[in-house]
Design a protein that fits this description.
This protein is of the alpha/beta class. The chain has seven helices and six strands; from the N terminus they run ββαβαβαβααβαα. Helix content is 34%, strand content 14%. Strand 2, helix 1 and strand 3 form a beta-alpha-beta unit.
Length: 219
């Protein structure tokens, strides 16, 4: 069972909506809303985030913040995406080359992927879309193997990058939050880290907010 969530935009309900305790833009509790730090970042390559149901509305999750910052990003919620018509139409589109962000020995760097896409252009693959899995590593691994259509996609690796996700336990050194992964992926793919800097600034505010909350509880 899957559910696709539409792209975020300026015409969505804002955090001062008195009918809800949660912001419908960043999905956080109103008292912890981070929308004042969200900046729209222009980008070319679309992102499709496959989110495990347990991550929906997680207070320490970052996928919604990433999507709120980008114009071409979508969240698909589920574990088995065989019934996600939109996603499967995308995967079957002859004009699109999808890449899965998943590090392994055969994964391509973004630079290598650009060369790969150039070669595929002769076969009609004109544009790149990226798929990210949002969940714990154990759950992301299960999601990957429950969806055969994902197993055959070329994979992307970001290389050795030190994660800064200090508010959740990392399974290993170099593990990245979804927001960090989106930042590094787009920065490397589009070759403009400065343009995507607002994503990391937003991530810094999220970490700081949680640390301040924890410090307040200890006092």
């Amino acid at each position: 069972m899957t559910q696709s969530r539409p792209d975020f935009s300026d015409n969505m309900k804002q955090p001062n909506d008195k009918e809800s305790r949660y912001c419908t833009r960043c999905t956080r509790a109103l008292k912890a809303c981070l929308c004042e730090y969200v900046r729209q970042v222009p980008h070319h390559a679309p992102l499709h985030i496959l989110q495990h149901p347990t991550e929906v509305g997680h207070p320490k999750g970052t996928a919604a913040l990433l999507v709120a910052s980008l114009g071409h990003a979508r969240i698909h919620v589920g574990e088995d995406f065989g019934g996600d018509e939109g996603l499967n139409t995308l995967l079957a589109d002859p004009d699109v080359q999808c890449y899965l962000l998943w590090p392994d020995d055969e994964a391509l760097t973004p630079l290598q992927a650009r060369a790969h896409l150039a070669r595929r252009a002769g076969q009609g693959k004109a544009s790149a879309h990226f798929i990210l899995l949002d969940g714990t590593w154990r759950k992301a691994y299960r999601m990957l193997h429950r969806n055969p259509a994902l197993l055959g996609l070329p994979r992307i690796t970001l290389g050795a990058i030190a994660g800064q996700y200090s508010i959740r336990k990392s399974p290993f050194t170099g593990a990245l939050s979804t927001l960090e992964a989106g930042y590094h992926l787009l920065s490397q793919w589009e070759g403009d880290a400065e343009r995507f800097a607002p994503l990391m600034e937003l991530f810094t505010h999220l970490n700081r907010q949680w640390h301040e909350f924890a410090d307040g509880r200890r006092r």
